[in-house]
Amino acid sequence: MEEAPWLDDDETKTWLALVSMLIRLPAALDAQLQRDAGLSHFEYQVLAGLSMSPGRTLRMSTLARFADSSLPRLSQVVARFEKRGWVRRGPDPDDGRYTLATMTDEGFAKVAAAAPGHVSEVRRLVFDSLTKAQQRQLQSIGDRVIHTIDPDGACPATIADAALGVGDS
């Protein structure tokens, strides 16, 4: 087996910066959401996905794609949300093989209360330190890396994209 070429100094610095960001950014977002709203970042993504969907209702499979989650992980979170009165689940009347998750008014109130602090933290941690050109570069870089990892599974930019199973690229 041929040995892979080592990273040069610039590549090593870039890689270490990326790894540090990948570890620290989710932790910082989780900390803010836990402190201010009692939610993990993943839980917030699930609620946000439902809040942006027509009728605040999505098939669980679509919501899993949007939240970049497995169905079992999503089911556990939605079960907790059901106990809190934030979400209801039921069969899809168009196709009973699917389960719909519907956000309640209480769930919408929860995500609406959490959103301003979360958006403020995202802006502070990511966007405030970047120029508009750097923001576009970051999006392009993210899209390219995701496409390399999973050519057919780019992160959906919208709920509609998640429903169609398409990404942003």
Short description, anyone?
The chain has 169 residues and is mainly alpha-helical. The chain is built from seven helices and three strands. The protein has a three-stranded antiparallel β-sheet with strand order 1-3-2.
The topology string of helices and strands comes to HHEHHEEHHH
Distance between the terminal alpha carbons, to the nearest Å?
34 Å
The name CATH uses for the topology is: Arc Repressor Mutant, subunit A
Strand arrangement within the widest β-sheet reads 1-3-2
Shape: globular
Count of extended strands: 3
Residue fraction in strands: 5-15%
What is the CATH architecture term?
Orthogonal Bundle
Q: What kind of sheet is the major sheet?
A: 3 strands, antiparallel
Structural class: mainly alpha
Contiguous low-pLDDT stretches (5 residues minimum) are none
Total helical segments:
7
Q: Count structural domains.
A: 1
Helix content: 55-70%
Mean pLDDT: 91
Rg over CA atoms, rounded to whole Å, is: 18 Å
CATH superfamily: Winged helix-like DNA-binding domain superfamily/Winged helix DNA-binding domain
Give the C-level CATH assignment. Answer: Mainly Alpha
